[in-house]
């Protein structure tokens, strides 16, 4: 029995219309890339919009990813095209490029939500907030509808004191939401700035979830976690929030994938579809001072194959069901085997891509 079910429909796309950015933030995944940068073409964007519009119900197209959306020369046209297709449009931006003219054009194009990322330098934050305040003043008394505004901050050792300022900043730009995420380190240097310690908290399953009629308490002897032992107990551990291993109580995470449960996916600037932002491109991750390589998983390209066809392909359907069950080993609380060095497979025998080490599913790292 599943604790939660994946959304059968695609409800939200994170669309990376560019990988270019006006800033060079030390915490960004762009610091560890070696691939080319580029902008999404109008033809590819039309395919994205047409594909998402075929799904029923409330559909959100968020301009985000790992570039600055306002760097794209056609961002206003893209926002308008998505809105004209009946999609709810959101832009995640550092705000530094949010001039009065560009801001007014986005409002006129029907932008519904603006998320201001405030994680890259205090001077940039002050400038971005000033830009947003200026835009708000210029929009007063006009026919332009003011979008929902949110602040998104990344919590680090080096900026933990700035949390005190978030409420004041939110009030000053009429923000309805303050969203805070932990840092996702891509290098060992970044990892030293992370605030979580030697163990990772779970995503929030309470202690009462450990023992109930659907999930009996599992007590195991000490194991060497050889392939034979791992295969033997893998099914038994599926869905368990915690077990007793030898004399130690082990938190298995109670993890929940926000992308699968909420019906989300991601598209890169070339039009490649991935189940989530972490699988959009190959990159290193450092969790608890342990390095691993997350290999990208593209399900197809929207410029070549309709989005609905990619969403309904059997391999993707099975992946969403597997992630919803979250029958993955508790890699962050173990990590002593070589299998954690990639997301290729795990000690339970799950096929690529595996998600046991994902900090998004642990609730530590959050998307805007």
Largest pleated sheet: 9 strands, mixed
Oligomer: single chain
Poorly predicted regions: 204-214
Spatial order of strands in the largest sheet: 6-5-4-3-2-1-10-11-14
Number of strands: 14
Helix and strand composition category: alpha/beta
Q: Can you give the helix content as a percent range?
A: 25-40%
- Span between termini: 30 Å
**What's the SSE pattern?**
EHEHEHEHEHEHEHEEHEEEEEHH
The proportion of residues in beta strands is 15-25%
Structure overview:
This protein is 26% helix and 17% strand. With 368 residues, it is an alpha/beta fold. α2 packs parallel to α3. The longest helix is centred in the middle third of the chain and has 18 residues. The two termini are 30 Å apart. About 3% of the residues have low confidence.
Provide tags for this entry:
368 residues; nine-stranded mixed sheet; single chain; 17% strand; alpha/beta; three-stranded mixed sheet
Topology:
Layout (H helix, E strand, L loop, with lengths): L11 E4 L26 H12 L6 E4 L11 H10 L3 E6 L6 H9 L4 E5 L4 H18 L8 E8 L7 H10 L4 E6 L5 H4 L27 E2 L6 H11 L4 E4 L2 E4 L6 H4 L2 E4 L4 E3 L8 E5 L2 E5 L5 E2 L5 H6 L1 H12 L43
Parallel strand pairs: 1-2, 1-10, 2-3, 3-4, 4-5, 5-6, 7-8
Antiparallel strand pairs: 8-9, 10-11, 11-14, 12-13
Helix pairs in contact: 2-3
